[in-house]
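Kindly inspect this chain:
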Amino acid sequence: MDNIRGIALDALMEAEDSSASSSSIITGVLNKYDYLDQRDKAFIKLLFEGAVERRITLDFILDKRSSVKTRKMKPVIRNILRMGVYQLLFTDAPSYAVCKESVNLAGKRGFKGLGGFVNGVLRGIAREVESSGYKDEERFLAFVKDEVASGDKRAVCIRYSVPELIADILTEDYGDRALSILEAMMKKRDVSIRFRSTLKDDELKKAVRDIEAAGVMLRRSGDIPYVYQASHTGDIRKLPGYEEGLFNVQDISSCKAVLALGIREGDRVIDCCAAPGGKTVLASELAGVGGSVTSCDVSEAKADLIRENLERLGCGNVRVLVRDASANVPEDNGKYDRMILDVPCSGLGILGKKRDIKYNLTKEGLESLTELQRRIIDGCVPYLKDGGRMLYSTCTVRKDENEEQIKYITEKYGLKIAAGPVQLLPDEEEQDGFFYCVLER
């Protein structure tokens, strides 16, 4: 088992040293070790994602219980301890095994002399957990009860492992509901899969049966008949029907937004910031063989992601272009019946999926982001025909990126709101935090 923990440790070290996203790192690691037992791969994923997501909480506890602050620890030891504390507080791993394997791992990485330090810190935390009376995922409260009792902002940050900037944004925009939103974001979610909307009832039922026969648990998600929540999936790409293009990974909130746009058979659609292409695919299905979709993104790498999805899902009415959405292309002005404008955003609605987003946000970065969104709006709104409709959407819950941008569009361009605005929040249903509004020229 120490080898499995070693793989997770390597991934954490890469996350500290690399600019790559944590999701891309763990995906690469699991692909590299695809030959491992499914339970081992699940454990690697759990350790890595848990240590990343709970980093603020874990470092706070370590700083209170260790003679050396986390920022001064050797990176290998710091990450071994993060994994160890995560296991003690958030998993059912026996404490003796966590301590033993952590010490062994330190020795194997050339830090045998620090084995006593690792053992002492983890055993002390384990004893405190065992004597606290707290159970399951409440165990970490034994270490933050004083801060929680104080009711100050720092307690929120420690409990939900978010920087103060995010706590401030959510509190300013949602008041007391901010805690409920943060609580929902910390919950583990099933994978949301969308079957092709063009499948007949019997074809959809067979696709569902085949996936369930592979050991996956499926249940309908909301009121869209072809969206399901899937648990115990393992590698999605190995499920029956994936290679045949019967389904795609797409959250129900994203589907709701595209459906609200009211794409009709034969419509000419443009998706301006399309990668990886989930909305493009649904738009392609809705527009049908008589319609068309122009799917754009800013780089060839992103365009390749879109093409990969289109090829697998059999979308023949789509052309993919490399295009900077903030730079208007005059010859396309007034050409499109429907437009999807899912702009780059802060991602505060999907913190549970992209766990490292929260560590990279700054006030300056957020201000720059809202300016970029407006440049994209300015570049793309002219593409819409008179009487055409556009979907503005984000995967954030921040009002400056949502309601304020709708106000900008209506005041500058005179578009009228046709549907929404709708702010989906993760504490309402099993869905991402997502915003959308449909506007008409």
User: Anything to note?
Assistant: Residues 191-249 form a domain with the Alpha-Beta Plaits fold (CATH 3.30.70.1170). DSSP finds 18 helices and eleven strands in the chain. The first helix runs from residue 2 to 17. Residues 42 and 159 are 25 Å apart (CA to CA).
